[in-house]
Write a structure and sequence with these properties.
about 190 residues, alpha/beta, about 35% helix
Length: about 190
């Protein structure tokens, strides 16, 4: 099944201020505990927009979970984190959906934050996996399938390497755009 999405953030753009507020909120850990999102220090962070009642989401969660585990096994736990942004409204269905995921989630009780994220990024269909760097800058708008993505028949380690290449290009671009302060000259006119 093909997924068509409205335009969202472009590569290299900061996660918009309104939706970036989710970083101030708690996120739910796999074990049910909660932690401040500000404690995340992963190289790449995937925002996984999903719903329990969505067949493509149910299919994709297994593929993404395999990729998530493979990346963390090879590159370490700081390499990649995923955070579920749930579209669910039923707590039990969300819990069931979460039970299939080895990653974090925005708690369903933070409905206002979830709706703002879906709205701010024009999420009209799910699943969608938005990849951010540790500073909240978008690396890839949708990493479901394609060269930078995860999906049926795709190698998650290759996808991760491509995402890291994108991140490095962005960082080089930032460095090139930063003004370099000139050293004071010892020569007088």
């Amino acid at each position: 099944m093909s997924v068509t999405l409205s335009a969202g953030l472009k590569r290299g753009k900061k996660f918009c201020n309104e939706s970036f507020a989710w970083f101030q909120n708690l996120i739910r850990c796999e074990d049910g505990s909660e932690m401040p999102a500000t404690e995340l220090s992963n190289t790449l962070i995937g925002l996984y927009f999903s719903a329990s009642w969505c067949p493509p989401c149910q299919y994709f969660v297994h593929i993404l979970a395999q990729g998530y585990r493979a990346i963390r096994e090879v590159h370490g736990p700081q390499a990649f984190e995923v955070i579920l942004v749930p579209l669910d409204v039923d707590e039990k269905l969300w819990e069931l959906h979460m039970s299939k995921m080895p990653w974090l989630s925005i708690p369903l009780k933070n409905r206002e934050v979830i709706v703002k994220l879906f709205t701010a990024h024009c999420i009209t269909e799910a699943p969608r996996l938005m990849i951010l760097d540790s500073q909240g800058t978008t690396v890839v708008e949708n990493a479901w399938g394609g060269d930078h993505g995860f999906g049926f028949g795709l190698d998650p380690l290759h996808a991760y390497e491509k995402l890291i290449e994108e991140l490095q290009k962005m960082q080089r671009g930032r460095e090139e755009n930063d003004p370099i302060e000139e050293e004071p000259s010892d020569v007088e006119d």
